[in-house]
Specification:
single chain; 111 residues; mainly beta; seven-stranded mixed beta sheet
């Protein structure tokens, strides 16, 4: 399974970014997909998850601001991030079934 994440960048507080993660080498529609993030000096944490059937989970810290979605026809999972805060800064990783990791994309939110 290969996961390729993109869409990170530098944005001001209050701004938006949309992350994408394209999967290959797998039956994507069967996979539970996750977005994790790791802030400097902190442990990696789950931000959002979307099951094969569409069930969705968000970390409390991002509820109401982030939206996870998937397009099975494109083997892609998205993370729409709105109302970004400096605390959202970190490396964002996509993950399949808590087993397979992408390379990460850096999000930096300036105050």
């Amino acid at each position: 399974v290969q996961l390729q994440a993109s869409g990170g960048g530098l944005v001001q507080a209050g701004g938006s970014l949309r992350l994408s993660c394209v999967a290959s080498g797998t039956i994507f529609s069967n996979r539970r997909m996750y977005w994790y993030r790791q802030a400097p000096g902190k442990e990696r944490e789950v931000v959002a998850a979307i099951a094969a059937g569409g069930n969705i989970h968000y970390a409390d810290s991002v509820k109401g601001r982030f939206t996870i979605s998937r397009d099975n026809a494109k083997n892609t999972v998205y993370l729409q991030m709105d109302s970004l805060k400096p605390d959202d800064t970190g490396m964002y990783y996509c993950n399949a079934d808590m087993l397979h990791w992408g390379q990460g994309t850096l999000v930096t939110v300036s105050s």
